[in-house]
Amino acid sequence: MSLFPTASMGQSDTDSLSRQLEPVVITATRTIRKLSNVAVPVTVVPEKVIRQSGALRLNNILKEQTGLYITNSFGNGVQIQGLGPDYVLILVDGEPLVGRNGGVLDLNRVTVNNIRQIEIVKGPSSSLYGSEAMGGVINIITDASRSNGLYANLRYGSYNTVDANAGGSFSHKRFSLSAFVNRNSSSGYDFNKKDTGKTVMPFHSYTAQVKAEQGFGSIVKTGISLRYYNEKQQTLYSTDYGIAQGSPRIREYNIYPFIRFNFSPKVQSVFRGNFSQFESETMEYVKAIDTPYYNDFFQQRFNRIENQTDIKLLETNDLTLGAGYTRERLNTNRYSGIKHNTTEYIFIQDEHRFGDRAVLIGGLRYDNNAAYASRFSPKLAVRVKATEKLSFSASYGAGFKAPDFRQLYLNFTNNAAGGYTVYGASETSVAQLQQQFQAGILDSISAYGKMLKVLEPEYSRGVNIAGEYRFNNDISVKVNVFRNDIDNMIITRIVAIKSTGAYVYSYFNVNSAYTQGIETNLKWRINKNLSAEGGYQFLLTADKEELRQVKEGKTFGKKPGSLLSVQVPRKDYGGLMDRSKHMANIKLFYEQGAWFATLRGIYRSRWGVADMDGNLILNRDDEYAKGNLQLNVSGGRSFGKTIDVKAGIDNLTNVRDKRYMTDNPGISFYIAFNYRFFQKNNQ
Amino acid sequence: MRNKSALAVSYFFAMTMIIASSCKKDDKPEEEIPLTATEVKSFAADPTANDNHYAFYSLETGKEIAVSDSASSKWDIAFRSTTIITNGGASGPGAGGAFVQRATSFDSYAAIAADSAFHTDNAPAYAVPTGSGNGWYNYDFTTNIISSIPGNFIVLRTASGKYAKLEILSYYKGAPATPVADDVARYYTFRFIYQPDGSKSF
């Protein structure tokens, strides 16, 4: 880690120092641990890599990490070990971000300009984090003030993309303050000039963050972090009534206070709060007839208080106890009325060390909720250092995802598309359907309509077994084998048919799926200037019921161009949609004097996008989007201690897919300047 | 894709013709004649949705039956939107009935098993169940497309008590192999094998 947020572009004394220091990670155990002592699969992306890669938003940098797959639906979400964005928890400084659309938290909302490091924990971690931590947890550690200084940087790139940042920090005795502001804007780009509007419409966004901390004596420390995000994007599209336009807006407020008590070197307790609000508002008009075409309002409040107490027992055990209370409130015109939901939880974790050679961690969390069934989430992990060079780790964990508001409370009739209705599971019941049937509103009730009941959380069990071999200080290789079994997946089913012929849908715990594979990473410091990293993930997935049907020869499909049914052989079954079987990356980082350069290649193989032959499964070549290799380069130099300049080209080979990769523009260029006004290293 | 589908359909027709003509050349026509599939293309099933009536078809004669004959035993099967009825029960005076045979190859389905139960229409429950995934089709609400479920076909008893198997191939005009949202719906393309001798084998 560098000592200052922007001081790490070129090689400097602090960098060569930091290379010797072992990275630490907090997300894996909710306590600060050396990366080499962690028993679950963790990736740490340091600030320097983020800067040198020229990433602006969280999706840019996650895309370059092994095994992470960026989805392109409802914004950009991330898949970990083949588990989709609904199943990945995104934290900022340990606190969850809220405001998901279609289950996806859009990573474009998160700037990476004030980040010290990104921690990625793979596999289920609900034993520590509760709901959503099924596929993994991504924790963005924002920069804390460690010195006095002010900085500003400006980046300009293709499509009029402007990213401006300013920040500073100040500390005096036991008080510290840091502030950061980012403005990001773009004119967007267009893949299809013929239709109305652009593929990506012009937008701008602001992020602001202020952190203040004050210590009192040696025992008490308190602080608060404030975060604000505001985004506005234009929309323009054609409708049957004429061209519609609007400017959807997103606003996000986060307040994170804390107070920490260091009762003794052995006992520490922290109370944390998370008071967040996410708001999106869309009002689109048909200009010609001055009539509202689409109006959507969505406001989510998330309030949480939590205590975590860490106790050192003997010299061998670290015990962590925690409890919390969450209250959520949802106000939207999509549902009938304001909805509330509360969760209480407790968790316990014990880490036991067997000398220097082995560590064993056990954890358990209990989440209780009024609207759906409560859940126990256990975890067990072990890491053994076989030799100085070789170590093994294995972990078993449970994850769950609570039914979201949509699945509980949606009450939506789409009159534009034939009048179908979708009810959240709490918005309808067998009795209610029967009433509607008797009143003649419904024509018939399906078998599922007679089975409506309280939803259960979706849950998963994940196993990770890893080996790590360090040939020497310069070369290391890691291999991790994983398997996740997901049950009770919530999907929509038809519960009734209206007398108009339109369907009524609701939500059920029906599907089961698995994801399994191997991830491997290689790090090689070739010489003092050049280092290389390579990663590869092999992934297999399946919906268990689909797979069973295929194996039993009960699934038929159609050959491209044919109307006749043929049996789908096992080898044609492609598993879950939107997953790449092979993903790989190779990254080169070069540094000499004040100069740096990077070359990064990111490959993903074809991924399923749509059913073409009516069997609703992935079995035909034309049901995939084409795989691709994307190359990014960047380089720059620093001038003294105050100025850095860098430039880069993303998507060097101009890979584009106008249909399935609308989030990926063609070749794009950027240049960035960074200036530090002053910096007093007082450390 | 449309060209390919047209090719496939014409190929299928050509094959049918070849098989049919080769049968005619058979020296012993009085012996068992292999049954051949008949394909009906883009049969309009209330396409404007304004007429609000079924479109009727006779498997025995291979012809459309006028709406005015809807109360007779002249028709065997009828279509309206995604709903399919047979001439029996609440739908008509005939001896008709049906069931959906699932996950089976149409061509290799040689005989109706003795324990197969034929259902008759009793609206709103039909012998061919309505609704996505229940009977002959899947509805994809992201693309708004109705696709016949590969491997599912209808086994039916005609108005006069004979047997047939019938597979829906497309729900769109011109039977595109890969329908898109702009294609015109409510046009059935189907193939069937009708057994005139009253037996349950094909």
Textual characterization of the structure:
The complex is a heterodimer of chains A (683) and B (202). With 683 residues, chain A is mainly beta. Chain A has a single domain, classed as TonB-dependent receptor, beta-barrel domain (Maltoporin, Chain A, Beta Barrel), CATH 2.40.170.20. Chain A is globular, with a radius of gyration of 26 Å. Helices cover 11% and strands 30% of the residues of chain B. Chain B has one helix at 2-24; strands spanning 38-44, 55-58, 63-65, 77-80, 83-86, 97-101, 137-140, 145-148, 153-157, 163-172, 185-195. With 202 residues, chain B is mainly beta. The longest helix of chain B has 23 residues, at 2-24. Chain B has one helix and eleven strands. At the A-B interface, β32 and β33 of A face α1, β7 and β10 of B.
Q: Regions of chain A with pLDDT < 50 over 5+ consecutive residues?
A: 1-20
How many structural domains in the coordinates of chain A? 1
- Strand content range of chain B: 25-35%
- Poorly predicted segments of chain B: 19-30
Oligomeric state: heterodimer
Taking the alpha carbons of the first and last residues of chain B, their distance comes to: 32 Å
- Classify the beta-strand content of chain A into a percent band: over 45%
Q: How much helix, percentage-wise, in residues of chain A?
A: under 10%
| Shape assignment of chain B | globular
Mean pLDDT of chain B equals 85
The CATH topology annotation of chain A reads as Maltoporin, Chain A
How many beta-strand runs of chain B? 11
**Integer-rounded radius of gyration of chain A:** 26 Å
Greatest interface by residues involved: A-B, 32 and 39 residues
Strand order, sheet with most strands of chain B = 1-11-10-9-6
Going by CATH, the homologous superfamily of chain A would be: TonB-dependent receptor, beta-barrel domain
Radius of gyration of chain B equals 17 Å
Main sheet summary of chain A = 22 strands, antiparallel, barrel
The succession of helices and strands of chain B, N to C, reads HEEEEEEEEEEE
